[in-house]
Each structure stands twice: as structure tokens, then as C-alpha cells.
Amino acid sequence: MDHFLYRNGELHAEDVPVRDIAAAVGTPFYCYSAATLERHYRLFDEALDGTDHLVCYAIKAASNVAILKLLGDLGAGMDVVSGGEYARARAAGVPGERIVFSGVGKTRDEMRIALMGGIRQFNLESEPEMEALNAVALELGVVAPVTIRVNPDVDAQTHAKIATGKSENKFGIPISKARKVYAEAAALPGLEVVGIDVHIGSQLTQLAPFRQAYEKVAVLAQELRADGHDIRRLDLGGGLGIPYTRSNEVPPLPSDYGAMIKETLGHLGCEIEIEPGRLVAGNAGIMVSSVIYVKEGEGRNFLILDAAMNDLVRPAMYDAHHDIVPVAEPVPGGEPATYDIVGPVCETGDTFARSREMTAMQQGDLVAFRSAGAYGAVMASEYNSRPLIPEVLVRGDQFAVIRPRPSLEEMIERDNIPSWL
Ligand SMILES: *Cc1c(COP(=O)(O)O)cnc(C)c1O
């Protein structure tokens, strides 16, 4: 459930007509619902009720500081994958003890930033990374809390670009090598082993791959404890999928996911961390765009929007489907039409949807891309010198621009012409 509904013939974001926001900020723009973000965070928090846990929002899904502050104020931890994301979490007021640092290639500079600013744990992914963090910690005179990300070699059955838990993926250490690598970590004086980490992919629509991975983690936890390691925390990653279409299969609910976690891992008495990103932010955001032209092609009609692949890359990058709906509610018996929905960028890949059936549209009409809150604004670029589009946050009947649209001057001023040119 989200808070983008038709009321009085107009799409609303909570209590605000989307058309009013478009009039105030111009299109295209992203719009997030505070109530939806809050609801999704609480679903996870409640799913783990009764177990010691921390929901660490994976901020790479949508990292605007206003969104991080909203979630942080509810008690969320944060999963960060770069020094930049760490700085964002801190700027949102999230204390270091609620921040976990993931990622396959943390640099020494990033490790230093997090160790000096405070960190709950590093999720390490290789032996060279272990050695680097050990060196940085010793240099700073601190001990770094760590888990090691194991690769359980399970098929997440998701898009190949976002599957991370098979042995051929670059992530983690093979689970078969885990005991050896944990022994090496324990021998490094700058590291303190606190648990195990696993993350098998994104947009998973079934529980079975999670279950397979977590069962392997449960076995490993017992083995590592027998080897003398104090395994007290399990970071189970993110990855729970969302429904991108109304008709599609319905992914598991956070409550079922939580129940499965308790069932597979509850007996270990560990503190549980989960890192949901997409499920928190995905259906909490839309992208709103205007129709620039309706173009009649040979055998097909094109809806040319003012948003493009640089603003929302998921269709071009992952062949992703987004529901695209008119902001003015279609009237029953309205004229139907079929469109290829495209942006203005000079690439055929700049296609949001092919042969999409919807109501007939005209120049200037507004459309909303549903489920655009995660991996939307954060993946945007200025390709074709199109300035990054603004982000807006709605709560009840209020809205605010949480990132403005840069002017063309601001975009160009970042370039520098050398004096010798
Ligand atoms: C991307 C990522 C997540 C979040 O994945 P979602 O599918 O958005 O829930 C969590 N943990 C790690 C390590 C990730 O790389």
C-alpha cells in the first residue's frame, strides 16, 4: 500500500494534488510520501518484534538527507556503501553506532572517515580488505568491529545485474572458506569479529533463496562459535522485492520474511540486522513528467516525455517495468490509446515502455511513474546536459523541495576551462 491515490479525479501524494507540485516546481521531478516511507520502515521493525534487532535502511536506494532524517528519527540504522553515504547518514543525524559499512571495495580513506566518526561495524568482503582495515585501525589506535560477508552460492532468481549471492559474483568470500578467513581476521589486532554478514541480491520475489542462504549462515554460526569466535550479530542484508505492477505476482510480506528469519536463526540468540532499501523507498516515490509531444509513427504512436533515461535509468538498465499513469484520473469509457513511452535523449535505449495501453494523452498532460522511489533519483545523471531533476517530500498536506533543480548556469559552472586553453 502507498499514499499515491486518485481523489476528486486527480492523483494525490498523501493530501497534496500532484498537479499543484508540478505547478510549483516544474516537471520532471521525484516525489516521496513520508507516510509511506514510515509505514515501510515500521513493517520491518515490527516483523522482527521480539528479537533484538536493527533495521539498517540501505541508503543507496534513495539517499536524500531529508529521507534519511525521517527514517533515522524513527530509530532506523543505515547501511552505507561509500564514504559519501556515510557522510549523508551523519548529516541526517544518525549516530555512528547505528551505521554499518558494506561494499566490496572500501578505500582506506573511507575506512578512516568511518572509524573516526563512529561505526557500528564494517562488513568485510575479502582478505586484502581485512588487512587494509586492520592497518587503518592500528594507525588510529582503535579496534574496528567487523563481520565478514559470506557468499552462500544460492541463486536469488532475480535480474542478473542485481544477483549477488552466486559464487561467480564479486561479493563476499566463499562460504566454504569462511572458517579459514575468520581465523585470519581473529588474529588481526585491529579487528574485532562480531558476526556474520550475507546479502544475496535485490528485488527477490520469493522467500526460498533467503531461506537457503540463512540456513547456511545458521550452520556456519555454530561452526564459528565452536572455533571460538564470538558470533553475536547476524547481518542478513536486504533484497526483498516490491510489486512493480498491480497484476504481477506479489512478493513476500515483511512479516513473512521476519517469521522466516526467526524460524531459521532465532535459536542462535544473535542480534539481527537487516538492510532493506527498495522495499522501504520504492513504492514511496513517484516520478512525475509532462508530455512534450504525441508523435504518430508508422504503426505506432510515441508519447515523448520531458523525463528521460538519465532521470530514471531502470527501464534502460534492468529492462524494468514501471506503471505509468495519467495524473488526471482516466474517466470510464475514455478514449484508449497504445504508446511507446520515450524520453528526449538521443538513444533508442531511452524508452520507458513499449506498446503500453493507457488512456489517450495530449501535449502538456502529466504522467506519474509509480514505484520510482528506489534506485531512481540516486542513479540519475546529467547525460545530454539535462540538469538533475528535483526531489520533493510530502507529509500530509505539506510539501517541500528537498533537492532543488540546478539552473543551467549552476550545472555549467562546475566545469573549468584551464588557463592554458
Ligand atoms: C543494495 C544492498 C542492499 C539493499 O538492497 P534492496 O534490494 O534495495 O533491499 C542491502 N545490503 C547491501 C549490502 C546492498 O548492496
TrEMBL record:
Pathway given in the UniProt record: Amino-acid biosynthesis; L-lysine biosynthesis via DAP pathway; L-lysine from DL-2,6-diaminopimelate: step 1/1
Domain Orn/DAP/Arg decarboxylase 2 N-terminal residue range list: 35-281
The protein's name in its UniProt record: Diaminopimelate decarboxylase
Top EC class of this enzyme: lyase
Gene3D superfamilies: Alanine racemase, Lyase, Ornithine Decarboxylase, Chain A, domain 1
Positions of substrate binding: R278, R314, Y318, E347, Y375
Signal peptide: none
Binding site for pyridoxal 5'-phosphate: G239, E275, P276, G277, R278, Y375
PROSITE patterns: ODR_DC_2_2
UniProtKB keywords: Amino-acid biosynthesis, Decarboxylase, Lyase, Lysine biosynthesis, Pyridoxal phosphate
EC number, UniProt record: 4.1.1.20
UniProt GO molecular function: diaminopimelate decarboxylase activity; pyridoxal phosphate binding
Cofactor: pyridoxal 5'-phosphate
Assembly and interaction partners: Homodimer.
N6-(pyridoxal phosphate)lysine: residues bearing it: K60
Family: Belongs to the Orn/Lys/Arg decarboxylase class-II family. LysA subfamily.
Annotated ranges, domain Orn/DAP/Arg decarboxylase 2 C-terminal: 29-373
The keyword Amino-acid biosynthesis is annotated on this UniProt entry: yes
